[in-house]
Design goal:
The structure is a single chain. By secondary structure, the protein is mainly α. Helices cover 76% and strands 0% of the residues. Helix 2 packs antiparallel against helix 3, helix 2 crosses helix 4 and helix 8 crosses helix 9. The chain is elongated.
């Protein structure tokens, strides 16, 4: 095989190994969108500012996606770009966007990008803690958070007073909170 044929084979192998960039971007972006939104909300003074910067960040992420290395931490890469966009936004807006000084903004950026605050992590911990509850407590807490279900309505449905049910729900919530906190501490996420 000549040098040209070998090079063509290597290029074809690389092209087959890397997924379609548009699909890859959309999958990574949609998976990380909520965290990126929370990240920007932690850095900027208003939800409107965060929404504006998220729009700008989305465009920059797409334009620079060819510099993203497949298999690395997309969220960390996106946070670097979002942080720079937030800083640019602050410069454009002047004093009105400067609720925090730059040192505090850097600290917030670092904390907000930390995986321990990822909604998926907290939800996984909550699910595991829910599974540890008695069947009765699981049913009670799940019923309470069904759409349109109030404490009063649920109390009537199960034949208890609203006060008694509120106390039980409070006990269950405290139990869940303590369980989640133990998990966070055990995982070094406290």
């Amino acid at each position: 095989m000549d040098g040209q044929g070998q090079m063509t084979d290597e290029v074809n192998e690389f092209a087959e190994a890397r997924p379609d960039p548009t699909s890859e971007f959309l999958e990574l972006y949609s998976h990380n969108y909520p965290r990126l939104q929370y990240y920007l909300m932690a850095l900027l003074p208003t939800a409107d500012d965060a929404a504006d910067v998220l729009q700008e960040t989305s465009l920059v992420l797409w334009k620079k996606f060819d510099s993203y290395e497949t298999g690395t931490n997309f969220f960390a890469w996106a946070c670097k770009i979002a942080r720079l966009q937030a800083l640019k936004h602050r410069e454009r807006r002047g004093k009105s966007a400067r609720v925090f000084d730059d040192a505090l903004l850097e600290t917030l950026a670092t904390e907000a990008a930390d995986d321990r605050w990822a909604p998926g992590t907290l939800l996984r911990d909550l699910r595991q803690c829910l599974e540890r509850l008695s069947t009765r407590d699981q049913q009670l807490i799940k019923k309470r958070y069904e759409p349109g279900v109030s404490v009063r309505r649920l109390a009537e449905e199960i034949g208890r007073t609203a006060n008694s049910l509120s106390k039980s729900l409070g006990r269950i919530r405290r139990s869940l909170l303590e369980c989640i906190q133990r998990k966070q501490t055990a995982a070094g996420r406290d």
